[in-house]
Amino acid sequence: MISNPLALIAELTHRCPLHCVYCSNPLELAAVTSELSSAEWIGIFQQSGKLGMLHAHFTGGEPLARPDLTELVAGARAAGLYTNLITSGIGLTESRLQGLVDAGLDHIQISFQDSREGAANWIAGAKAHAHKIDLSRLVRRHKIAFTVNLVIHRQNIDHLEEMISFIEKLAPDRMEIAHTQYYGWALKNRAALLPTREQLEKAVETVSAAEKRLAGQIRIDFVVPDYYARFPKACMGGWGRRLMLINPSGKVLPCHAAEVIPGLTFENVRQQTLESIWLNSESFQRFRGEEWMPEPCRSCDRRTEDFGGCRCQALLLAGDATATDPACSLAPAHHIVESALAEANSSATISQPVSASSFVHLQQSVSELWSYRTNPE
Amino acid sequence: MAPPEDSSQPRLAAGCRWGGDPKPGVEERMVLFPEGAIKLQGTGRQILERCDGQRTFAEIIQELQAQFTVADPAKIRADITQFLEQLRQKRIVDY
After folding, report:
1. Using a CB cutoff of 8 Å and minimum separation of 24, what contacts does A94-101 make?
2. A189: distance to nearest CA of chain B, Å?
3. Which chain B residues have a beta carbon less than 8 Å from that of A106?
4. Do B34 and A80 touch (CB under 8 A)?
5. Closest residue in chain A to residue B95, using alpha carbons only
6. I need a surface site. Which of A111, A307, B58, B80 has the fewest CB within 10 A?
7. How many CB atoms are located within 10 Å of the residue A319 CB?
8. For residue A221, which residues of chain B lie inside 8 Å, CB to CB?
9. Distances, alpha carbon A338 to alpha carbons A71, A313, A322, A332, A342, in Å
């Protein structure tokens, strides 16, 4: 029997004032004119509540780019869902925040790109850093949960300790220190983002010291780059097992990146109910359970823990969505990850840490370093 | 991390809340928090339902000691302390 989904990821729009070089949005962004209406989203939340989902995660793009966000939060709360806003904060004012809290917003997560303004704005391709700091102070005046998300990578990992102290001052309940995951724009920019083994080991120590120091005050969730792990991550808690993602134009996906997998067709919530998609969609069933698994997954004890890893990563790296995730040390295609690591750990590649003083210089010298995320038409 | 003091008033942390009202005949209740939820029943539920920001830690212990008279009162105190410490670490409870 298929259990019910637990959370909805509502990608409200692909519009975004930031242009982060590691954005998890697909390279092909959903057009503005195709976005779901307020009434369509509210209908989706009602269906989600009835299906037994617990959480609605509002994301994008930048969810605040939707003028009806407050109405959508109220709609999700009315459907019994826990509401989480994942945002850059751009577009949030004092009165809009008050409106969101009044509408029943439970949790806000603001992402930071760095502790140093120049570097943060360089990564985001926008002047956003100072505003985010102001906004964090506003958020703390409300009784909602507050998470600061910090994305780390080769260019900023060397001053992780400084970044943790910076976040501490913002006084969140939770700090998410997440390595970039190599999909979408981040895969395109991987060479400039993948840290060295030495950098990573130092980061692990820094985080564990901070965890001890901040216990009971700020909870730290740490996401390591799976390229360095022995076993793959349990991507999305297993394909079609817990989560449903709805993209801005109503396409229902098992995960953010699923559209990269050729041969899968995705239903649209404009044409079918969420329940029927969850139960019957070919794409949701494609990698659900264990039937699809190749060796070594099929006979591996860890198959019920990591579900064979990430299907999209298997496609992106090994060219085969049914392969064992190449991040797994037991995977036949693990050599692909190993060669990316070898490259990252050779001195030949760029690894100048960004500092405020070298920011301008770096911007000029490495303008070829990466591609900024664009915006949809 | 320090255990709760007798005079502290434990409560659900910011952004953590019960998922719906108690239903008669249903043993399980859910607490929702960012990125997750826990199912509570039995003594866990009894403890957390008393973490209302009004009752003191000492009062919560007394109430549960009065309810579970067969158990060792010192053990009840130790169990509640440990339970609340764990939930504080996860940022589900504050005290």
Report:
1. A94/A138, A96/A64, A96/A70, A97/A135, A97/A138, A97/A139, A97/A142, A98/A142, A99/A70, A100/A69, A100/A70, A100/A73, A101/A142, A101/A144
2. 28
3. 15, 17, 32, 34
4. no
5. A216
6. B58
7. 10
8. 35
9. 47, 14, 20, 12, 6
SS3 of residue A252 by DSSP: strand
Contact B15 A144 (CB under 8 A): yes
CA distances from A117 to A123, A129, A165, A369, B82 (A): 10, 6, 15, 19, 41
What is the pTM for the complete model shown?
0.90
Q: Is B32 on the interface with A (CB under 8 A)?
A: yes
B2 CB within 8 Å of a chain A CB:
yes
pLDDT tens digits, one per residue of A1-14:
789 999 999 999 99
Instruction: List alpha helices for chain B, DSSP H.
Output: 42-50, 57-67, 73-89
The verdict on ipTM greater than 0.90 is no
- pLDDT digit string, tens, across residues B30-88: 999 998 899 999 999 999 999 999 999 999 999 999 998 888 999 999 999 999 999 99
CA distance A297 to A207: 31
Contact B47, B80 (CB under 8 A): yes
Round to whole Å and give the CA distance between A27 and A312: 14
Q: Which residues of chain A make contact with B17, given a CB cutoff of 8 A? A: 82, 106
